[in-house]
């Protein structure tokens, strides 16, 4: 995610050289990523004064598919949350967290937002949520009639969920910690389309054979 946090030195990416040493440069020098035609303005500021007329590239051409579809800051933040959920499932240690109930609630809300924003679905339906998540857990959180309106609102995500260096062996979560408002409905279409396909493939490969019905037409 150094790409999309815009923490890599663009000079190191394009020329493998920087006029400043790694200690003096405000950007990260340690990267093996190279792209000689990358637009420095676009990469550093997420915009370019030349727009479509720019002779350089406004995309990262040599990165994995999922990174290639990250177009906005919202995309990048949601990708961080996907990574957090994956890591949380594999590394979470109950004994180091005191307020587990509040943590579980926040994790569940994030998961609901992720599934709603990224899976295929029928308009006005919550069947896609029931397909990929435990229905009883979602119902304990909020009533069905209030669920969709709430998912259209920004959600204050614990800032620690975005930390790529999270240490699961320490007391990393505090209910009173900083939060970051995230508008899941501001994802780019390219990002949503990419993950739509992943959810469909998961359904076809794992759930359909168990008798689950598609949640979209």
Automatic annotation (TrEMBL):
Domain C3H1-type: 33-61
ZnF (C3H1-type) residues: 33-61
One annotated GO molecular function: zinc ion binding
Gene3D superfamilies: Zinc finger, CCCH-type
Keywords: Metal-binding, Zinc, Zinc-finger
Taxonomy, superkingdom: Eukaryota
Protein name: C3H1-type domain-containing protein
Lineage: Eukaryota, Metazoa, Spiralia, Gnathifera, Rotifera
């Amino acid at each position: 995610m150094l790409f999309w946090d815009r923490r890599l030195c663009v000079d190191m990416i394009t020329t493998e050289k920087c006029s400043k040493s790694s200690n003096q440069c405000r950007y990260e020098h340690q990267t093996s990523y190279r792209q000689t035609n990358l637009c420095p303005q676009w990469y550093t500021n997420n915009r370019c004064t030349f727009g479509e007329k720019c002779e350089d590239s406004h995309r990262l051409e040599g990165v994995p598919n999922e990174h290639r579809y990250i177009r906005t800051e919202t995309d990048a933040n949601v990708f961080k949350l996907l990574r957090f959920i994956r890591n949380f499932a594999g590394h979470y240690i109950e004994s180091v967290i005191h307020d587990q109930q509040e943590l579980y609630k926040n994790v569940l809300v994030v998961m609901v937002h992720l599934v709603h924003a990224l899976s295929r679905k029928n308009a006005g339906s919550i069947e896609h949520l029931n397909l990929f998540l435990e229905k009883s857990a979602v119902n304990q959180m909020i009533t069905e009639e209030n669920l969709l309106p709430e998912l259209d609102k920004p959600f204050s995500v614990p800032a620690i969920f975005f930390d790529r260096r999270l240490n699961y062996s320490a007391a990393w979560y505090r209910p009173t910690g900083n939060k970051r408002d995230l508008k899941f409905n501001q994802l780019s279409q390219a990002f949503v389309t990419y993950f739509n396909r992943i959810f469909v493939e998961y359904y076809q490969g794992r759930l359909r054979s168990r008798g689950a019905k598609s949640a979209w037409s």
